[in-house]
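Exercise 7. Predict the joint structure of the components listed below.
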Amino acid sequence: MKFTVRLTLLAALALVSVPSGAESGDRGMELATTGAGTGIVPCVACHGADGLGNSAAAFPSLAGLDQDYITRQLRLIRDGGRAVPVMAPGLSSLTDGDAEALGRYYASLTPPPAADAALSDEEAATGEALARVGDWPGRELPACLQCHGPDGGGVGEAFPALAGQHASYLAAQLTAWKEGARGTDPNDLMGTIARKLTETEIQAVSKWLAATPRRSER
Amino acid sequence: MSCPSLSSSLVYVIPLVITLGACSATDSVPAPESAEVSAGPSGSEASSTERVDFQAELPPAPPSEVGTFVPPPRDSLPDGPFGEAVRRGEAIFTDTPAHAGSFLGNQLSCVNCHLDAGRRADSAPMWAAWVSYPAYRKKNDRVNSMEERIQGCFTYSMNAGASPTGDAPEAADPLITDLSAYFFWLASAAPTGVSLPGRGYPRLAPPPQGWDIERGAQVYADRCAICHGDDGVGQVDSAGAPAFPALWGPQSFNWGAGMHRVNTSAGFIFANMPLGQARTLSEQQAWDVAAYINSQPRPADPRQTGTVEEADERFHQHDCRYGDAGPERQLGERG
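Solution:
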């Protein structure tokens, strides 16, 4: 993993092009692309120049996520509320203003297209049912899209976009909630759900969401 | 009114018709009782003092040994023209703004109050409603059809008066036919004319402490606002599509909708909210937050032709805040 990260970091630092969506001189873009001398590692090292993350490493796509959601997660990771050991040291000097600037910057980037996730017919059926319908009788499982938006594009600061997010990341987070490693969701809303999901269901619904495009605006 | 200490357990009771005074005029009341109308063949006779209430809820069914009815699985939908009608009906039901927007004065969907696409017991499931109509109602002294009941949902819950067409769909509108096909299919093999367990919303015992909107405001802030917003107006998704329904304000149900009654809301909330965490609020909390939500402004009662006081006297002889003092103006007053 470390080797992969370093390679990605080198590749990222070699980039000279600047993603669209932010003005030159933007603090968020500056932090994202070059980091800061206070120990802040450039975000692009892991999350890519376009903010689309890395599927193999389960680094999430940040592009087009809600601004306040990103800001809150950065603070939680910096302060230890959300345990992300690979990120926390590099965020120790991040100010709240920096977190807001990064939130603004990544929210302005173009969201990911649907991923080309390899789904079996069975996974597709299980994943779509959980995402669109849930599993109510006897299990009390709401559908993912009931809270994360009918197209999975996210709702407000508390319910991030899921459509097009890497399946590897989604599955890792559902597992983290299920096992109690992630617990910063309001009112344990995700924990309540994740603890009821089987491993098979986690894989299926994560792949289905990754492969689902966001609906066009209406 | 005395305030008996009652078990906090959920009770199902035979429908009773109780003569009540007009809506309470204070911010808290001792143990309110609900005034339900009879409906369906097993309902009791309504008393002559019953007031007109066009969107009365179905009383919950008594406990039963037969268990909860299970509607047919989603993947068993038939092919052909009937199956297509059922599919259209399900689509209208689950995303009403997209499929019936011309009859909506807000952005609510049927599924907002009838969870799991109208399948969920204790969330006014459509399989139980379907087998309860037509039903005689003494209040208008005639037999009411399912079509009229659906129109009532558009008029009150969807506030059709503020819609592009200005009214609910006609009874013969294909939308009503498609919704009826969906309900009929959900009720496949259900006994007709039987009050099925899980019908309507559960009736909660009157709260030992009465209800209190100050306590309700705290419950709302703690457990509801994350989805429905601090100001109760709900949330849209990143593409502008409705995600969480408005609980009050101009985009919510109006003062004629069944959900404006505190007892109705309390039963719904207790058995169904928060989503995925049903029955984690105490019954007392459900009563309190229901009272808080229904003490906020919302669109006028379409039946109001004169003053709020007159409409209060004629249409609101039940457990609600209509006509009481609100946060800004009298509740029920036209915006």
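Discussion. The longest helix of chain A spans residues 67-79.
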